[in-house]
Amino acid sequence: MTTWFSVLLVVAGLVISGSIWAINLKVHRFERFCRLCALFGPFVLLGMFMYSIYFIKGAYYSWLLLICLSLGITIAWLCAGALMIGVLIILAVGGYWLTVTLRDANYAAFRRRFRRDFSYGWRRIKAWIEGEE
Asked: So what's the pLDDT on residue 112?
């Protein structure tokens, strides 16, 4: 496969997976675009994978096997993209929650925990060094 075709496959998969997430999360701002991507996107990916297998890789399979392989790859591609976007959403929401929580507490809990962990680690290192000598 060419590099640009691979990049196009990745971008298309992420856009379609992101559209499915946006529909599930009821993001109304991009609703029309997301519905179009979620409706026609898997067919575009299916066609791209069929093109990839048949023409670019030169694997001359029967059409039934070609459709089955492309369909399996498309489903796996969309699941992988949805998993990646889901993890990014979880990290973004968790990071926002952590930042807001620590800011509301004036970062006191974070500083106290950091000092306690650092002093404990330093005592362990110091005891290990003194035990060596």
From this structure: 75
